[in-house]
Design brief:
3-stranded antiparallel sheet, disordered C terminus, mainly alpha, 5 helices
Length: 172
């Protein structure tokens, strides 16, 4: 009897683990969709009210937990219905592992595409340093010049500061 009771919990995990990742992906998409709808159709480019800063995270949280709960409940019910069969279906385990792997790779691919998993380029580092110093713009000499430096410009476009790029890279 104890062996039979565990199947509903095993299936809750088999559905819940990939469901966690799928819920994360779907909730990010829902967050973006609601933000897009608010921007395009309702609030536009005008300053948004504070309520938008509350609504958007609440949409994310609600969609995430509702979907994840649904995955766990569906897994529980599926496991409960399969408790008469004492053998574990390896296809179900394989499907759970595959969906988990696909979800992880989808998240990693998105983050890689967004530039979050790659080193920051010299150009971006230069722009950040100049912005932190209060300058209006930044630039770098042509790559084929052999000079590796960051140039900060004032609001009139005049060069005001030049920093060797290896100094900038070692600070960050």
């Amino acid at each position: 009897m104890n062996e039979i009771m565990k199947k509903r919990y095993i299936y809750s995990l088999l559905f819940g683990v990939p469901g966690l990742l799928v819920s994360l992906i779907v909730s990010v998409i829902a967050f973006g969709a609601v933000a897009g709808i608010l921007w395009i159709y309702i609030l536009g480019d005008n300053p948004w009210p504070r309520s938008a800063g509350t609504i958007l995270p609440m949409v994310f949280i609600f969609v995430f937990f509702a979907l994840w709960f649904a995955f766990v409940v569906i897994g529980f019910i599926t496991g409960k219905n399969l408790e008469e069969n004492l053998e574990m279906n390896t296809k179900h385990i394989l499907a759970s592992v595959c969906v988990t792997i696909v979800a992880v790779f989808s998240i990693l691919l998105h983050q890689l595409n967004a530039g979050n998993l790659v080193p920051i380029s010299d150009t971006v580092l230069c722009a950040e340093i100049c912005r932190e110093q209060g300058y209006s713009a930044s630039g770098m000499p042509p790559k084929d010049s052999g000079e590796r430096s960051c140039i900060c410009f004032d609001r009139y476009g005049q060069e005001t500061m030049r920093i060797p790029i290896n100094v900038v890279s070692s600070d960050k």
